Amino acid sequence: MADRDDVLIVGGGVVGLACGLALLEAGRQVRVLEAGTAGCGSSHGNCGTITPSHAAPLAAPGTIARVLRWMLTPDAPFRVSPRFDPALWRWMLGFAARCNRRDWLQAMQARVAILQDSRAALPVWLARHGIACEFESSGVDHVYRSRADFDAFADEADQLRALGIAVEQVDGAEYLRGEPALREGVAGAVRFPGDARLRPDRYVAGLARAFREAGGVIVEDCEVQAFEETGDGVRAQTARGVFTGRDLLLAAGAWSPTLDRSLGLRIPVQPGKGYSITYSRPALVPKRPLVLHERSVCVTVWDSGFRLGSTMEFSGYDRSLNPVRLAALERGAREYLHEPVGAVREEEWFGWRPVSVDDVPILGPVPGRRHLWLATGHGMLGVSMSVATGQLMTDLICGREPRLDPAPYAPARFA
């Protein structure tokens, strides 16, 4: 049995490592238990955009109608794979109940608070820990080929502005004059100048390095099978033996619900499968990251490469790399870009995002438990929310006054 730690963290992705690093800065002794290798999950292959602009949740008016319409469309941007899965359909019923304007606005307020806090802190966080990950305060542009869709965004734009998000709307002809990478047919673009980008695999590798250098321990290939509270702490049974600590933070992303029996709490999270393809950098690339609206494809450019990504597929923990989903990324990019791919396809990837039933992260103490904590449910925004999540969880675990109001994220809202 290993020596007792102050905090055991289950999950070595971007959220677990950010929490661990913040806890080390607060003087706690931390051990991360990771089933694979640090950063091997959805932290690795996402598009690396830092997006307070994505404050609006997936649970929105009209979402369920689109999901039903797309259910039998294999390459739909948001697809639920038809199958018998009681946990999925229970989650879908809860999700559907929140697809109304009141809940949409409430979730947006919660999401924007943590996104803005994290975005503001990120440059200092990277500099303090010496993390080189091609971070750039680039802004992000959403490009529309449908004038009706572009005009329909006006309501969401007003809500975002009211919450402090800078939004610029640009006519298509004007936008094309400044962006030669795009094909003709752009109706308009929405620019979010406060957004940014980084290379996520390098970010999470930098977090792991900084965590170890600060004295943290990462135990890899260490799947946690169960855990329990003891009189004065926690005990975790793993594939590599038993570990004990004063507190345990479950930050296992989309895998968190597989351990919820140990918490005595049902975690309303489903794995939302996303895909990406990474290429060598083409000769003609967009000036900043793009979201190709009608195809829900994200395009990110770094000095070191070029990535197409996104889509949301609810197919359980299916480990197949679906070629139909990958082809949809390239096909969507070809509609918009003169050079939609690079000469060398370097990596095809999928990962599971932890999507909570209200699309708001689940952060805080497990109800009725003194030593158990949750940090999951970040959906597609784990990288964007990582710094603020680490700070909030550290404040809560250390008993400090939190900078963010923790109430909107508390696990107790599902108890």
Highlighted features:
415 residues, alpha/beta, FAD/NAD(P)-binding domain, 9-stranded mixed β-sheet, 8-stranded mixed β-sheet, 19 strands, globular
Mean pLDDT: 94
Please indicate the count of domains.
Answer: 1
Supply the CATH superfamily name. Answer: FAD/NAD(P)-binding domain
Count of helical stretches: 11
CATH topology: FAD/NAD(P)-binding domain
Helix fraction by DSSP (H/I, runs of at least 4): 25-40%
Silhouette: globular
User: What is the CATH architecture assignment?
Assistant: 3-Layer(bba) Sandwich
The helix-and-strand class reads: alpha/beta
Encode the helix/strand succession as letters. EHEHEHEHHEHHEHEEHEEEEEEEEHEEEH
Poorly predicted regions = none
Taking Cα atoms only, what radius of gyration do you get, to the nearest Å?
21 Å
Name the CATH class. Answer: Alpha Beta
Tell me the number of strands. Answer: 19
For the termini, the CA-CA separation is 33 Å
* Binned strand content: 25-35%
Largest sheet, in brief, is: 9 strands, mixed
Break the fold down into its secondary structure elements and pairings:
Blueprint: E1 5-10, H1 14-25, E2 30-33, H2 42-45, E3 49-50, H3 63-70, E4 78-80, H4 86-97, H5 101-129, E5 140-144, H6 147-152, H7 154-162, E6 168-171, H8 172-178, E7 188-192, E8 196-197, H9 200-213, E9 217-219, E10 224-229, E11 234-238, E12 241-250, E13 269-279, E14 290-292, E15 297-302, E16 305-314, H10 323-336, E17 345-356, E18 362-365, E19 372-376, H11 382-397
Parallel strand pairs: 1-2, 1-12, 2-9, 4-16, 5-14, 12-19
Antiparallel strand pairs: 3-8, 5-7, 6-7, 10-11, 11-12, 13-16, 13-17, 14-15, 15-16, 18-19
Helix pairs in contact: 1-9, 1-11, 5-11
